[in-house]
Amino acid sequence: MRTVYLGTSGFAATVLRSLAASEHAPSLVVTPPDSRRGRGRKLAPPPAAETARELGLELYQTASVNEPASHAAIHAIEPEAGAVCAFGQLIGEPLLSEPGFLNVHPSLLPRWRGSAPIERAVMAGDPETGVTIMHLARELDAGPVALREATPIGPDDYHDVLSGRLAEIGGRLLVRALDLRAAGALELSTQDEAAATYADKIEASDRRLDPSRAAAELARRVRALNPHIGTHLELADGARLGVRRARAVETPDLEAGRIEERGGSLVLGVADAALELQVVQAPGGQPMAAAEFLRGNPLPPNAI
Q1: What is the pLDDT of residues 103-152, one digit of tens each?
Q2: 3-state SS, one letter per residue, for 283-295
Q3: Could you tell me if 144 and 158 are in contact, meaning their C-beta atoms sit under 8 angstroms apart?
Q4: Rounded distance between C-alpha atoms, residue 34 and residue 49, angstroms
Q5: Alpha-helical segments (H) within 126-210
Q6: Is 157:223 a contact under the CB 8 Å cutoff?
Q7: What's the CA gap between 276 and 222, in Å, rounded?
Q8: Under CATH, what is the fold of the domain 3-199?
């Protein structure tokens, strides 16, 4: 089928690769315009745009997919189906129903509708997550479900690892859904609204590690928000210590907030045990293993 694909992020770029390798390779890829990113604030294309160019796919970049010019560009290819994945723009009519878009969402809907489903699943301690292919609807991630596949959340799954696995699943499920649609065999089921939960956008407060919380909760927060967002401790001297990798450990004799060196490791006392700070980042510095940090820096003051 002739398809149009709307996507932006690295996750969307991975799904695009799977779609491009199928019988439903998109006739048009739509992404936002290039934007300034990184410390140097250099103009750079969205990952999905880079992938589209690499694969030789026709690309259309727009700040609003709902503008008449965007509609015209999409309708010009006469799509039979559309797909949306991590696009970042609200989609209105007539695209909501024309040509009938499928949405690739990295959660087991109706759990974790919204903008941060991977992070919230890890932070909540969910034993599994997954990918849902649903029909696009006006309500947030509430459309009828076509396909769903689960994957366990492992104790060592950081965001990049889990996101990569989900993107591979998402690409495969999207192709399968389009195969079924082409055969007239795609079935949709209504979501259970009573079971819906919402994955709110990650705020600055989510990044802070509070030593008054339990070790397992803090370790999950570190895994959920690294390496793409980052987590940190607020120290007694007003500085922040970035924490890029950490794990819960049994050290009940360390008061909450106290940081000590134990066996070449940095250990933070928390509410119920301790958090081993495996990879840390000083202000303005680069992430480094705790042992390396201790060779060139004094022991950090207590955390607030």
Answers
A1: 999 999 999 999 999 999 999 999 999 999 999 999 999 999 999 999 99
A2: CCCCCEEHHHHHH
A3: no
A4: 9
A5: 159-182, 204-207
A6: yes
A7: 11
A8: Rossmann fold (3.40.50)
SS3 99: coil
Q: Which residue has the tokens 């990049």?
A: 160
Q: What is the pLDDT of residues 164-189, one digit of tens each?
A: 999 999 999 999 999 999 999 999 99
Distance CA 15, CA 56 (A): 16
Joined together, the tokens standing for residue 274 give 């301790």
Strands in the chain per DSSP E: 3-7, 28-31, 35-37, 42-44, 59-61, 81-85, 101-105, 113-114, 128-135, 145-152, 198-199, 231-234, 240-249, 259-262, 265-269, 274-281, 288-289
Torsion 292-297-302-303 (CA) sign: negative
CATH of 204-296, one of 3.40.640.10, 3.10.25.10, 3.30.70.141, 3.40.50.2300: 3.10.25.10
Is the pTM value of this prediction over 0.90? yes
Bond into 152 cis (ω within 30): no
What is the C-alpha separation between 132 and 102, in angstroms, rounded? 10
Burial of 77 (0-12, 13-18, 19+ CB in 10 A): middle
